[in-house]
User: What shape does this take?
Amino acid sequence: MTKAALNLQGVSTLIVDKDKFAVGLLLQMLRGFGIDQPVVVETGAAAKEALRKHAYDLCLLESKLPDMDGADLVLWIREQKPPLRFMPTIVVTSYSQMSNVTAARDSGAHIVIRKPVSPQILFDRIGWAANGERPFVETSVYAGPDRRFKFTGIPGGVGRREADLTGELGEAKEPNMSQDEIDAMLRPTKIVTE
Assistant: This one.
């Protein structure tokens, strides 16, 4: 059986990131996917203004913006009226500590991608967000794709070394997560109903 092709031509996209180098790489990848006119803004305020004026099909944003956390922008998006509240929202970030990934997930982001991102990872994650397999959940404290996930442990059963969890002076620090660890955390659990 062959997989259906993902056609991204004509997908309107908003990129929210102040890092010009990272944005340049994203633009090259998106144009390669057929997304030919993405809009770029640098701040959360500029993103809100752009989203008030235009209904985008996709939003890619950094988790640390000059004027707010990306999670706060995602929360704002999820509070808006449809179709904006349902827009696939992907956090593409250098800040891949567990607390940042958790904040993005809990704010209602579809996917978190660790920078630097490869074209294949970006394309696959856009497809994953767009396929609609995760139902949209709305409660009094959360709106976004279903965030119930299954954690199956470290891949291959190999844990972290104790030295990975401490800084140079021995103080505890939060390690960056690999893309595989982020994906495992964000992979939806199959829900079986009888």
In short: Helices lie at 20-32, 44-53, 70-79, 98-107, 119-130, 179-186. The chain has one domain: 13-186. The chain is about 30% helix and 15% strand.
